[in-house]
Amino acid sequence: MKKIEQKVLKFINEKNLIDKNDKVLVALSGGPDSVFLLYFLKKYSPKFKITVGAVHLNHLLRGLHADKDELFCKQLSKKFSIPFYSLRKNVKSFASKEKVSTEEAGRIIRYKEFERIALEKGFTKIVTAHNCDDNAETVLLNLVKGAGLQGISGIPPLREKIIRPILVLTKEEILNYLKFFKIKYRTDITNLEDDYERNFLRNQVIPLIKKRLNPSLSNTLLKSSEIFRDINSVVKKKIDSITGNIITKKKDHISLSITELKKNVKEYWSEIFRFIFEKEFKTQISFDDCKKIISLIDKQAGKNIQIFNKIKVIKERNELIIQRKKSEPDLKHLIINKGEKIKIDDKKLSIIEVEKNESSFGFNKNIEFISGDITNKNFIVRRWRPGDRFYPFGMKGSKKVSDFLNEKKISSFKKKEQMILLNNNRIVWVIGLRLDNRFRINSSTKKILELCLS
């Protein structure tokens, strides 16, 4: 059993996972892996000169079994006289709301909550109990799904403040160690079911590969994933230098220049998209996702696709717009009276009466002045609709709002969100773009209203 401990100690040293005086927070589920991890770190805490704490997340998925897991972790932490933090989160509800799998929902919540606890309590590292078999499952699962180099690079030993010291051990080694020292742990019976993709791999596919092709599959894939990680690191550096000229970050989206993208060989394109999604949206995309995005390049403006139902990619004239999918607000119309201020999305619109000497015309399209002589007190704000017409200031005659927006070369995704201000069923202002000529100020105007979008 000393050999197993030495194997972990060597791995920690090689990967520089623990520093002197670290305060480490162990993600404790009560299962064999995390129990081994806690025992190991507690035993070697004097050697490393570290402080150990534990955190447990009850996913509220397994009723009484989950409650017993939580109690077990609490008692184990008490036995070791270490701080223990227990959290309860409705993972199923979160998965339904975010339209992700229960597995993915659990992963998102775990890391978010563990990082919060670590920050609040002053822990310098978060320690998870991923083992060599977990890495093999991850590599195979990502390979099957076409997740690219990043996916088959497996589970990294170190990512920011998250460390995985027992990544070098197989499940068999961990179980043998616990059996030898008669260390108790909890068993999650759902791991024996094949409902989840990872469980199917673990219980059905991997045993067959080990039996027929490679008994040391987990160790082989651990070495392979390290090679892939090194290659991926080189590719990332190259792609990082490329994307600087390709993407422009805006407030609520990323713009990708098609002209700049095409200056690079096509073999880079998929990795460029994977890099952008991972870096900017913390999302790994598949081979098929990359193909769909690339197919947009030669399509007409306005065409779009959705990734995981939460990120939208839109083709514009010479760019791809990538943005998180926003829930469409219920905005049939809003009423604003003179002297009031209302919120429109993330901005505010105000209408106030001003004196003539206060009306200063400039180049700010978010501040305009109109004649209040021909308006009533109730203004309405809504999104433009097909068929809406107005009389653009500085032009002769009327024009459809849709044609005006096209002439202004407003992108299709911005065009959809364009607001108009109306009074008495007449368009007063295509907000932020152009006033209606019928409401212009002239020499006989008595009442002046300031329209301000801020």
How would you describe this protein?
This protein has 16 helices and 22 strands. It is elongated. β2 (51-58), α4 and β3 form a beta-alpha-beta unit. It has three domains: 2-214, 3-Layer(aba) Sandwich (Rossmann fold); 250-324, 2-Layer Sandwich (Uridine Diphospho-n-acetylenolpyruvylglucosamine Reductase, domain 3); 334-453, Phenylalanyl-trna Synthetase, Chain B, domain 3 (Phenylalanyl-tRNA Synthetase, Chain B, domain 3). Helix content is 42%, strand content 21%. The strands form five sheets. Strands 3-2-1-4-6-5 form a six-stranded mixed beta sheet, with helices on both faces. It is α+β, with helices and mostly antiparallel strands and 454 residues long. It has helices at residues 2-14, 32-43, 45-48, 63-79, 91-98, 102-121, 132-145, 148-152, 171-180, 197-212, 217-246, 258-261, 266-281, 287-296, 401-407, 412-415; strands spanning 23-27, 51-58, 84-88, 125-127, 158-159, 162-163, 247-249, 254-257, 304-307, 311-315, 319-324, 334-337, 341-344, 347-354, 367-371, 378-383, 389-390, 399-400, 419-423, 426-430, 434-435, 448-453. α5 (91-98) packs across α6 (102-121) and α7 (132-145) packs across α10 (197-212). The mean pLDDT is 90.
What's the topology here?
Blueprint: H1 2-14, E1 23-27, H2 32-43, H3 45-48, E2 51-58, H4 63-79, E3 84-88, H5 91-98, H6 102-121, E4 125-127, H7 132-145, H8 148-152, E5 158-159, E6 162-163, H9 171-180, H10 197-212, H11 217-246, E7 247-249, E8 254-257, H12 258-261, H13 266-281, H14 287-296, E9 304-307, E10 311-315, E11 319-324, E12 334-337, E13 341-344, E14 347-354, E15 367-371, E16 378-383, E17 389-390, E18 399-400, H15 401-407, H16 412-415, E19 419-423, E20 426-430, E21 434-435, E22 448-453
Parallel strand pairs: 1-2, 1-4, 2-3, 4-6
Antiparallel strand pairs: 5-6, 7-8, 8-11, 9-10, 10-11, 12-16, 13-14, 14-22, 15-22, 16-19, 17-18, 19-20, 20-21
Helix pairs in contact: 5-6, 7-10, 7-11, 11-13, 13-14
